[in-house]
Design goal:
Layout lengths: L5 H4 L7 E2 L8 H9 L3 E5 L6 H17 L6 E6 L5 H10 L4 E5 L4 H9 L3 E4 L32
Parallel strand pairs: 1-2, 2-3, 3-4, 4-5
Helix pairs in contact: 2-3, 3-4
Length: 154
């Protein structure tokens, strides 16, 4: 599981991220993925408000504490979401160890996340032009973006 920090990689049964699906992924799906040994992800927009995001993270953390060997959970911060600052504040307060930053440059979220020990990984941007990373080359990343048709991951 090259590219992942050992504290994350050692907790995975499968090298995959499950379920960062807008309007679909929820607490039950994320916790089931984590119990199965895969990274359980969800868009931070799914809970709606920052208060609900906080509640979701509390429920996910409670389920992880009750599991024998849970894989990490991973909120997906949507950079162009007008609630980004609120979502980031909640994720930082929970000291989430792994975060996906998508739909824009992750520059505004990388430093606060790294300050609390989180790993961040930008996803490929969707556009009509060939895929490009949505981050400056100098920004580090702990996970590879997903493969696109005809392109290997990484």
């Amino acid at each position: 599981m090259s590219g992942l920090p050992e504290p994350i990689a050692s907790r995975l049964s499968l090298p995959l991220i499950v379920a960062p699906m807008l309007y679909v992924s929820g607490v039950e799906l994320v916790t089931a993925a984590c119990r199965a040994g895969a990274i359980g992800a969800f868009p931070a927009a799914n809970p709606g408000s920052a208060v609900e995001l906080d509640r979701w993270l509390n429920e996910i953390e409670k389920a992880a504490a009750a599991a024998e060997h849970p894989a990490p959970h991973c909120p997906n911060l949507i950079v162009r979401d007008p609630r980004l600052a609120e979502h980031l504040e909640v994720v930082v307060a929970h000291r989430v160890e792994m975060v996906i930053a998508s739909v824009g440059s992750p520059a505004p979220v990388v430093e606060p996340l790294h300050d609390v020990g989180a790993s961040s990984s930008p996803m490929w941007r969707r556009s009509s032009t060939p895929a490009r990373r949505s981050r400056p080359a100098s920004t580090d990343s702990s996970c590879s973006p997903p493969a696109r048709a005809g392109r290997p991951a990484g």
